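This week, study the protein below.
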Amino acid sequence: MINRDLITVKNLAVYLIEGEDRLSRKYVTLEEAMDRQLIVLRETGDVGELAVDNPSDKYVFIMSGDIVRGGRQDRTIADDIILKPKSMDVPLKSFCVEQSRWHRRGGESDRFFSASKKGKPSRDIALAVRSKNQSEVWSEVERFQICASAAVCENVRSSESESSLELTLDNDKLKSAVKEYLDVLRPAFEARNSVTGFAYSINGRISMSESFGSAALFRQLRDKLLESAANEAVLKSSDKTCANHPTVEDVTNFLIAAKGGSVTIRNTGEITLEKRYDTPQSILYKTFHVEADKEEKVHTVAYNTCDREAGRSNSEQRFRYGGVRR
């Protein structure tokens, strides 16, 4: 259910999703698992696949679009996947979000990944990852860097590794622009204990929605997700589009329609099931934990796709005549 309260910051509107806790298990996120050294995430020598060991007694939830730093190249994780306790050598589908490196960077290990502080910074990068197309991921990363550079009037590429999305997101001027949104968004969520996710619109257009099976899991991922929404808002801050925010009814109707698409079902891991719903206007994914004959919905994400090409063509035209390119 979408809360009637609407949080707005500049060109961004955030719609709170509330619901009952439906998960019987607790999860550790990828970021927390890496920070606490509960798991080991390592290179395999294959750009498209990493390997992870979970010797802990925790269930670990890894989210599509999570970015991991280090190894021979920074990567983003392709699919939602849940790791069982004591599971070893689990393959993780991945995509490169740093084209030019295949060696150690600075003091980082080239065999292991050190952290996962960032997630997909826009809907279009998230969709490219979901499309399982490396070329499209590279294209959307470059588009993000071009558009972000224009939005903050500074080249956001890092001299340490120009193609690294992870290092781009650490650019001081971009982080400062994102902080203006987060300073409003984060306090608005603090006292809302029943929130399980949110949808958001930018420049009057619904972008996407993410929700979880419990408020606790959402809180663990909330700051990363809000930062992603704020990055996309900065990216599109100079687009000349309608500034009127969609109503709660508009967003509710979008989510209802997104659940009515044709369904594709597949396993993304030993205990992880994905259901994908396609309509002409949207793509929706539901991730389920399936174990001991019990199925629990952990994560739902819906992407608005009907305006995607229009938004891309506007950006391409704008940056063709003044954007920052390598």
